[in-house]
Design goal:
homodimer; 190 residues; 10 helices; globular; DNA-binding
Chain lengths: 190, 190
DNA sequence: GGCAAAGGTGTACGCGGTACAACTTTGAGG
DNA sequence: CCTCAAAGTTGTACCGCGTACACCTTTGCC
């Protein structure tokens, strides 16, 4: 990897870290892009070169995140029913990103734009899963979409149930809730 | 009703109509709040007195909408399983607002902010349903939330399936899709 | 070491949304 | 009918996000 790429990665990381530090201090809405850029030692314009939106700096998936998703999808046996396969991927994704999950819990729920972006991020994962399921069983595209949407909804239910728990609640609790919700959400027809 | 209230209602309606006219002409993003206000014959400030956001002018539920939801919820027999009750409400709501549905289809999908607000609107309905189900069966609040989230997800699946259909697709088609999705999404445990 | 391309920067702009201090309209009471 | 306070409207100024673009600096290859 050339010096160029190294610098880019470093800048990206610096901006992210600066942003997280400021957000944890003063909340999401209390920090402007201007400040993040200044703290990271770049210009506002450059900030927007790296992240298309302010929310992105908190939530945009790293290449590693995308990779993890692809691997998990690949790992699922073809014989596994769609619902179980999707459940396994979602659980695996959460297990792999526990630190991330804990950090995000501190910010999410405080700002509408941020929450929205978080949902869009879920949508991105959903898109991958939809394509995958449609390929697994091309006879029922509506069913594929439905399975993914339902599984995502179960994730949402688990997330808010966890959010309602006291502040220090461990990520393990969230994992239990997620597992329970996915189990109970299983469609009768699947 | 005094002159004051009449004028307020009229202004609100005028703004809405002006906005819809402009949006259908030039798309959601192609129209600024400034223009809507000018077309409706009020100031930008006044626009924001009536609608808190630009999206609100398209999507904010009228009092009649809220009333319909309350009536539908009231109509459901207590003996009906939660899943069927929620399904009936969602189907009823859609049936009652078919014109609205058709008009919205023309705008939704063209703008992120608008789509987001539409989802938030779904969230508002979800809130009502969640409270209702929790009251119906206080022993399982997580189950109540899960039921509502799953039913909403099914609605979402049906909506996007309908959006993918050719432009002139009738609302009746959407209703069929919605019914199918709700049926297939029924959790095994419910 | 020179040079094109990639990347960073400053500047200016558009738009949504808020705050606020005027100004105008409304309708109730004397 | 007049008065007057409350409700509603307006212009203005401001903030912050996001985009466009022209200009400058850095990079890595020949």
């Amino acid at each position: 990897m050339g010096l160029r790429e190294q610098k880019k990665d470093a800048a990206r990381r610096d901006i992210r870290e600066a942003a997280w530090r400021l957000f944890e201090e003063r909340g999401y809405a209390g920090v402007s892009v201007e400040e993040i850029a200044a703290t990271a030692g770049v210009s506002r314009t450059t900030f927007f070169n790296y992240f298309h939106t302010k929310e992105g700096v908190v939530l945009d998936p790293s290449p590693a995140d995308r990779e993890r998703l692809a691997v998990l999808v690949d790992e699922q046996p073809a014989a596994l029913p769609a619902w179980d396969a999707v459940s396994a991927v979602l659980l695996g994704l959460t297990r792999a990103g526990q630190d991330e999950v804990a950090r995000r819990r501190r910010l999410l729920g405080s700002d509408r734009a941020l929450d929205h972006r978080a949902q869009e991020l879920g949508e991105e994962v959903a898109g991958v899963l939809r394509d995958w399921l449609r390929e697994r069983d091309p006879t029922d595209p509506l069913g594929a979409n439905l399975t993914v949407d339902l599984a995502l909804a179960a994730t949402r239910t688990a997330w808010f149930a966890w959010s309602a728990r006291p502040e220090g609640s461990a990520v393990a609790v969230y994992l239990d809730l997620l597992e329970e919700c996915l189990r109970r959400a299983r469609p009768a027809g699947a």
